[in-house]
Amino acid sequence: MGKDYVYTPDFGGVPRALRATSKERGKERTVLIAGGAGFIGSNLSRRLIARGDRVICLDNLETGRSENIAALLPHPRFAFVLHDVVTPFRVNGPIDQIYNLACPASPPKYQRDPLHTFKTSIFGGLNLLALAREKGARILQSSTSEVYGDPDCPLQSEDYRGLVNTVGPRSCYDEGKRAAETLFYETNRQHGIDVRIARIFNTYGPRMDPGDGRVVSNFVVQALSGAPITIYGEGLQTRSFCYIDDMLDGLMALMDADEHLATINDPVNLGNPGEFTMIELAQLVLQMTGSKSALTYRDLPVDDPRQRRPDISRAGRLLDWAPKISLAEGLVPTIAYFSAELAQMQGLATARRAGEAVS
Description:
By secondary structure, this protein is of the alpha/beta class. It contains eleven helices and 15 strands. It has a seven-stranded parallel beta sheet, sandwiched between helices. It has a two-stranded parallel ribbon with strand order 1-5.
């Protein structure tokens, strides 16, 4: 796969000679987040920096956004590396923890280049596991509820093996994540690398891309813009929505949990068991935004799951974790974020048109 790229992180622009030594760092951890400029990754970066960790954000900015990390770039404990995890790489210096969040997660984006999506899960996973082995780091794989496919049971536990189409339009993501779980499992079993696997259910909140293509961002942006809200099928399919702060609590609890806990290296569902139909979500968004947008109906996409609801009893037992924020509570800051994003986008568009008129 070619020669490895080698990076020396530049934390806040501080020259290497002036950086703290490992003794001076004390208990400060160095955490690498692959996909760190994305929605979850950029929020996680802020949380880790706030608790005193050093963060290396690795992202190719294919779906991650530079706006998400712009305010972090000058921080003395933050370093950004522009790189695609599909290509092998090395990082100079210590790394204590690795979060693998590197992969497009919305159907319009992961279907844009399905082969690269699949490679990101497989080659990216292999490259990050190799880094974890080299550094003696603990590594967390962000898996997904999509490994369950279109489930034929109302509540999905980690023991459910799923109902996944291996040759459908969603397969590049679903099967890539399933294969990545196998990679992590076997690396733990054969080489003793401390791995964690989080099966993430629908997550929403600030720093989502307005053009993300997932249902919460779609509905809120459409409602705020006065555009029709797009419902696929009859809108009776369900999802369970977890606010970003709750998800970060779960991810960090899983990463930091005692390695001697039984089954800690096995997959763990992280999500909010509250279940809503797409019609219910649309009505709630309309109510909270005060929008008069109409509902418009389109055909249900191929392999679109009819139901998503996590059994989080394992997370409760192992991590003492459960989500605290209801959908209505979480939509308040989410709507405010998208409103500000749309206003900024409109302002930039107006300024651009004005500049074109002058020229």
